[in-house]
Amino acid sequence: MQQYYLIGSPISHSLSPAMHNLAFSILGIDARYGLCETDLSALSGTVERLKSENVSGWNVTMPDKQAMCDLCDILSPAARVSHSVNTVKNVEGTLYGYTTDGDGFIRAAKENGFQIESEDITLLGTGGAAVSILIACAFNKAAEIHIFYNRTSSADRIRTVIERLHTAIESDCEPKITLEPLSDEPVLRKRICNTGLLINATNVGMAGSGKESESLLPDLSWLSPDTDVFEAIYNPGKTVLLRQAEEAGCRYVNGLPMLLYQGAESFRIWTGSEMPVGRIQKEVFDHF
Ligand code: NAP
């Protein structure tokens, strides 16, 4: 039997075991997916143990995604640019590292008819989700990506990612990327009013953040029906931003399909098979 794990901490709330174990069972794959609670100080020891036990692969979540990058032998282009790994495939002791959040974002966006190629995109946030989305948009030929940061220290972090993007993408395919503070309301408003796709990858609106009843947009007038709105948050299913989008007549989607499809991409990397996402959505996500 093949064995897979989720490693990170805390992980007990994760939907990944239900998602992958159901997919293995539907497709008749002899494999199990379990949890392996691992904080940063224990990561390299855990990885050595998983290798010695010939574990086929694992997902990685906070706080281990960056450190996992340094423990892999070969990285995908997106993992290299983001310096973050959420999926590892172990091939006879050689560790291949990937990051699949960006793939999940692209599939969710396209499925909802959102355009990425040649699009003018506004991205709110500079954390892990924002970095994955930035790289995916750049690799998928967005024309312009306007990023807004909260704290100055976070802007410095994402500048490094933008520099790595410059070397990873041929100059004639490179999007125009700007980085501005969320606190500059006139600039933020101008960008959002002119954007084709607005993405919220901050915690503002997320359950448990203390900001669940807030949106970074003070009012509806910033949105036109021509603006598509992608919310990375999946809990709650309809954030204040998505309620604003609905009222303004925009197309919108929450973070659940991104979550589902990043898992489906890990599954494809490990097994070579397509995850039966319709059944997984119905039996795992609809109860979430
Ligand atoms: P993260 O790395 O901690 O980043 C959080 C981001 O939110 C940072 O840019 C942070 O800015 C910003 N932020 C926090 N408080 C803020 C505030 N009061 N005002 C403005 N910005 C604020 O977390 P993450 O992993 O990127 O996750 C971000 C969101 O995406 C979460 O809601 C998470 O659930 C969601 N997510 C969804 C998926 C999916 O598959 N759908 C995957 C990953 C994450 P500073 O650091 O500068 O304060």
List the helices and strands and how they pair.
Layout: E1 2-8, H1 16-27, E2 31-37, H2 43-52, E3 57-60, H3 65-71, E4 74-75, H4 77-82, E5 87-91, E6 94-98, H5 101-111, E7 120-124, H6 128-139, E8 144-149, H7 152-168, E9 176-181, H8 185-194, E10 197-200, E11 228-231, H9 240-248, E12 252-253, H10 256-271, H11 277-285
Parallel strand pairs: 1-2, 1-3, 4-6, 7-8, 7-10, 8-9, 10-11, 11-12
Antiparallel strand pairs: 3-5, 5-6
NADP nicotinamide-adenine-dinucleotide phosphate binds next to helix 5, helix 6 and helix 10.
Folded structure, characterized:
By secondary structure, this protein is α/β, with parallel strands linked by helices. The protein has helices at residues 16-27, 43-52, 65-71, 77-82, 101-111, 128-139, 152-168, 185-194, 240-248, 256-271, 277-285, and strands spanning 2-8, 31-37, 57-60, 74-75, 87-91, 94-98, 120-124, 144-149, 176-181, 197-200, 228-231, 252-253. The strands form two sheets. It has a six-stranded mixed β-sheet with strand order 2-1-3-5-6-4, with helices on both faces. Bound molecules: NADP nicotinamide-adenine-dinucleotide phosphate (NAP). NADP nicotinamide-adenine-dinucleotide phosphate binds next to helix 5, helix 6 and helix 10.
Descriptive tags:
six-stranded parallel beta sheet, globular, 288 residues, 20% strand, 11 helices, alpha/beta, six-stranded mixed beta sheet, 41% helix, single chain, binds NADP nicotinamide-adenine-dinucleotide phosphate
